[in-house]
Amino acid sequence: MDSVSKRIEELVEEINKHNYNYYVLSQPSISDFEFDKMLEELNKLENEYPQYKRADSPTQRVGSDISNIFDTVSHDYPMLSLGNTYSEDDLLDFHNRLLKELEQEPEYVCELKFDGASISVKYENGIFTRAVTRGDGSKGDDVTKNIKTIRSIPLSAKSNKITDRFEIRGEIIMPHKTFEELNILREESGDTPFANPRNATSGSIKMIDSREVAKRRLDCYFYYMMGDNIPTDTHYKSLKMLQDAGFKVSEHSKLCKNINDVFEYIHYWDTERKNLPYDIDGIVIKVNSFKLQEILGYTAKTPKWAIAYKFKAEQVKTKLLSIDYQVGRTGAITPVANLEPVQLAGTIVKRASLHNADQIALHDIRVGDIVFVEKGGEIIPKIVGVALHEENSTPTKFIEHCPECGSELIRPEGEAKHFCPNSLNCPPQIKGKIEHFISRKAMDIDSLGEETVAQFYDNGLIKTPADLYTLTKEQILPLERMAEKSAVNIINSIENSKNVGFDKVLFALGIRYVGETVAKKLAYAFGNIENL
Ligand code: IVH
Question: Domain residue spans in the chain?
Fold first, then answer.
């Protein structure tokens, strides 16, 4: 038995070391295969001898099949936010306020402001014991199981370097590459893609199944530590201490001797952030000395010794090659720009929204022009203006007929958008309505997706959502790439959808102005379709 517990110890140490090398230092020292072999062996031993399973066992990283129901728990120390500034003048005001109050020039630490979801992680005697979301700042969700799947977060810290009990704050992020891969998968399976890595991150850490979280390949940077008797006197040294204890701390934090160094840092990252593999939305400036931090103190919500400098939305210039017109499920026409591919906020942009006819006219946007593209919170970048008009180009004339079915477009009074009125026969409208009907928040027919809907429609099997309910296995089996098993799944899940609530059915119908909330209200007030 002793040899078993010894082997478990060895494996835990070894695996944790390789985890650290790979995820924190980005310097793998063994192959994935060797790593998986060790993990497999450990898993097997732990299953056979659960009495030897350690609290910081790396086997927890893969998640478990126990559903997460998040307890709301109080933070030991409130999770504060930061005051924001958007201009250098405001930042200078901040600095001058501190000068006056402290009667000396403070040293600052400048850090990247990671754009993800903040987290508070507690370590007791070196062992990761609890992870809580920000919530309202005083209480948050206990997401311990999910956060343990993030491999760059140590399950045991070298606590002798810090203190017995401490809590650290950091930001969970999803790198661009992971985000893009996730969205491709989501689109393939008919799920709505996430608008940005931040939304993808907060969605991921609240997932019910921690095994799914493990697949999301999240990362975490730590930037703040709390506890009694933290054995240091400056923020910068505390970051170093975290790093020595095995935590991932940004290599880009900088100790600035004066405010000019702070401005230099900001200027540098305002352009250099484009080359980072994850999103940041600004710079955080913190007073370095704990003693000075204490003098400055706190407001109800923010420390007075720190401030966030937020970047303006990123813009780039590129050439407008052509304009497509997309028809949505409501018949609304959206002009979409095809662009000369350009790097913007970490991704390559080839298409951008032009909104509507008014926006095109307002900026006099013409094919061939050099235009400004901006990425805000939305998934689709937008064109916000013209940098340079092409010589002899002609103003863009908005289309008058539907690009899909040829119907004459209408523009209702007071609406910014043009519409194709042929709602019963225009193919993208029909497909769009059916896609909406089957979506997760509607009838939740998850065995169908965009591609199968198109396939059924193109083969003349469905023209309205109602047609789904008369489909038979025999009808769909002959279709290309349709296996017996998927056919059965599809028919079953259509049948199962008859059990969803009335509110979902109402929402699924895709009536204009009847979104999820209105549908719920109507369902609550009327109870059934007859009453309604
Ligand atoms: S310090 C008392 N440092 O920004 C210390 N926050 O609006 C408060 N954030 O909720 C936080 N990067 O989620 C700090 N390097 C950084 C940060 C950072 C991102 C987030 C954090 C916080 C929000 C403040």
Answer: 2-62, 107-310, 313-422, 427-500
Helix ranges (H only) for 225-356 are 235-244, 259-272, 290-296
How far apart are the CA of 77 and the centre of ligand 1, in A? 14
Instruction: For residue 130, report the phi and psi dihedrals to the nearest 5 degrees.
Output: -160, 140
Note the pLDDT of residue 136: 83
pLDDT digits (tens, 9 = 90+) for 440-457: 889 999 899 999 999 999
Backbone angles phi, psi at 182, to 5 degrees: -60, -45
* Residue ranges in 223-354 assigned as alpha helix (H): 235-244, 259-272, 290-296
CATH assignment of 427-500, among 1.10.10.10, 3.20.20.70, 3.30.230.10, 1.10.150.20: 1.10.150.20
Indicate which residue's Cα is closest to atom 22 of ligand 1: 81
Nearest CA to ligand 1 atom 5: 80
Least confident of 106-115, 146-155, 156-165: 156-165
Binding site membership of 448 for ligand 1 (Cβ less than 6 Å):
no
pLDDT in tens, 60-78: 887 766 666 788 899 999 9
Residue 472, CA atoms < 13 Å, CB-side half-sphere: 2
What is the mean pLDDT of the segment spanning 298-322? 90
Its pTM stands at 0.66
118 lines ligand 1 (CB under 6 A): yes
- Which CATH number, 1.10.940.10, 1.20.1250.20, 3.40.50.2300, 1.10.287.610, labels domain 2-62? 1.10.287.610
Pick the more confident residue, 319 or 135.
Answer: 319
* CA 451 – CA 188 distance, rounded (Å): 8
For domain 313-422, give the CATH number: 2.40.50.140
In this predicted structure, which of 380-384, 475-479, 503-507 has the lowest mean pLDDT? 380-384
**Residues with catalytic function:** 113
| Per-residue pLDDT band at 411 (split at 50, 70, 90) | very high
Kindly state if the Cβ of 166 falls inside 6 Å of ligand 1. no
Beta bridge partners of 289: 234
Q: 478 Cβ partners below 8 Å, 6+ apart?
A: none
